[in-house]
Design a protein that fits this description.
Elements: E1 3-8, E2 11-17, E3 19-24, E4 37-43, H1 46-50, E5 55-59, H2 65-68, H3 71-78, E6 82-84, H4 86-96, E7 107-109, E8 115-118, E9 121-127, E10 136-142, E11 145-149, H5 168-173, E12 180-184, H6 200-210, E13 215-218, H7 224-236, E14 240-244, H8 246-257, E15 281-285, H9 295-300, E16 314-317, H10 326-338, E17 342-345, H11 361-371, E18 375-379, H12 383-395, E19 400-401, E20 409-411, E21 417-419, E22 427-429
Parallel strand pairs: 2-5, 5-6, 6-7, 11-12, 12-18, 13-15, 13-16, 14-15, 16-17, 18-19
Antiparallel strand pairs: 1-2, 3-4, 4-22, 8-9, 9-10, 10-11, 20-21
Helix pairs in contact: 6-7, 11-12
Domain Metallo-beta-lactamase: 1-193
Organism: Aliidiomarina taiwanensis
GO molecular function, one term: exonuclease activity
């Protein structure tokens, strides 16, 4: 649930404003009983709300919920323009349409490579590769120094959707004495290189092609590239693809309206899917993390209105297990196997059927070596991920590595320092 603030000359720039789901307000501690969880949780924005007259604007890097999902709940507290690209803007507009803010939030749509003057900040949008359309990193320039905020990224040379990763802009940064790089550290403990999104095709097609009955695939609804891969496999294997779950249907609708969907893919109406022959069905369902009200859980309980599965039907989890979701996923898989369904999870298959959207160690090394920042600021991970990313930065010759916690204030110029717990932070439950 990202919420980043960059400050200079008495002004602030917010980068991303996201949520998490079904989480407590206090981080879990080993040995202690779970505290109460809330449906939607965001970072507590109290600090910037108290200084909102100094907030110049909000930049959204991409459309994942942990980067954009809090805007409909919190924007009224900020009341500043939002800058983002077309796909993310459409996702945001649809969220706002469900609130009283539909026509009140000023959204400035930008393109790759654009530079916007936002208060004292000059912000340039740089294309990266991730697991959703139009992800961008930000170059943030001020008179005091220049920061590269990577956002979520990976190096994918063949990403299914959009252009492959272009290294040239990042190599150019290395010639410009970058003050700092704020870097995604989610996979910093994983050696090697992340799997390309295009590599999922072979594994998914093999599992779907071998199935004699119905096939249900569960994946993250925001991964339009994965949905396109599944749609093309459906076409090649003589199946009709149906989308089970509102978030999947909404995401394909957004992809269509922004030009990212292949209209030749044979989509079946959800209400018709139960009448098709078993061997012609490829359903894509929400609920890969064991969410109690999602389509996968209802299929496991025989309570999905438009489709029932039979013994021998195949269920494929084209997704990772998000830390913290181990138990609900395990329970869901047990329930599916108890019904006699063939179940395949991403960590069990010989060929990849899921690709992470975050960089592994070799990609981090490449990025640090290209950008050559004076300061490395690892973010987006637990303490061990951040420590690993900092160590990689040091190995790559970055002079200063600053590893901190939520609420720490990173002073980047003129002399690097961290003011520990300078700002009160926490979590708040959100209710519209």
């Amino acid at each position: 649930m990202n919420l980043n603030l960059f400050g200079h000359a008495g002004q602030w720039l917010m980068v991303d404003c996201g949520v998490t789901f079904k989480e407590p307000l206090q981080p879990q501690q080993s040995g202690l009983a779970s505290s109460e969880t809330f449906d939607v949780v965001s970072a507590d924005p109290a600090f910037i709300v108290e200084h909102k007259e100094h907030l110049a604007g909000i930049v959204i890097t991409h459309a994942h919920e942990d980067h954009v999902g809090a805007i409909p709940y919190l924007w009224q507290r900020f009341q500043v323009p939002i800058y983002t690209t077309a796909f993310t803007a459409e996702v945001l507009r649809r969220k706002l349409a469900q609130t009283k803010l539909a026509d009140k939030v000023p959204i400035v749509v930008v393109n790759t490579g654009d530079t916007q003057k936002i208060g004292v900040f000059e912000v340039q949008w740089l294309a990266i590769t991730h697991s959703i359309p139009e992800p961008h990193g930000m170059v943030i320039k001020t008179p005091a120094g220049t920061i590269f905020h990577t956002a979520d990224w990976k190096i994918d040379n063949n990403p299914v959707l959009g252009k492959g990763f272009q290294s040239r802009p990042f190599k150019r940064m290395g010639e410009k004495n970058m003050t700092a790089m704020v870097c995604d550290s989610t996979n910093a403990l994983r050696p090697g290189h992340s799997v390309s999104e295009s590599e999922c095709y072979a594994g998914l097609k093999q599992l779907i092609n071998e199935a004699s009955g119905r096939v249900v695939v569960s994946c993250f609804s925001s991964n339009v590239a994965r949905l396109l891969t599944l749609g093309r496999i459906a076409k090649e294997t003589g199946r009709y693809m149906a989308l089970l779950g509102r978030s999947l249907q909404n995401m394909v609708s957004i992809a269509r309206s922004t030009g990212y969907w292949d209209e030749s893919i044979p989509l079946a109406e959800q209400r018709h899917i139960g009448y098709l022959p078993r061997e012609e069905i490829l359903a894509v369902a929400t609920g890969s993390q064991g969410e109690p009200r999602a389509a996968m859980q209802r299929l496991a309980n025989d309570s999905y209105r438009d489709l029932n599965l039979d013994k021998g039907d195949r269920v494929i989890f084209s997704s990772m297990i998000i830390p913290g979701n181990e138990e609900p996923i395990e329970n869901l898989v047990k329930a599916l196997k108890a019904k006699g369904f063939d179940v395949f999870q991403a960590h069990e298959t010989e060929l990849p059927i899921h690709a992470s959207g975050h960089p592994c160690q070799e990609e981090l090394k490449q990025m640090y070596s290209w950008v050559k920042p004076q300061i490395a600021i690892p973010v987006h991970g637990e303490a061990e991920h951040i420590a690993s990313s900092a160590a990689i930065a040091k190995e790559c010759g970055v002079p200063v590595q600053m590893a901190g916690l939520n609420g720490d204030l990173y002073v980047l110029a003129p002399e690097p320092a961290i003011r520990r717990q300078a700002v009160r932070t926490g979590r708040i439950p959100l209710v519209q």
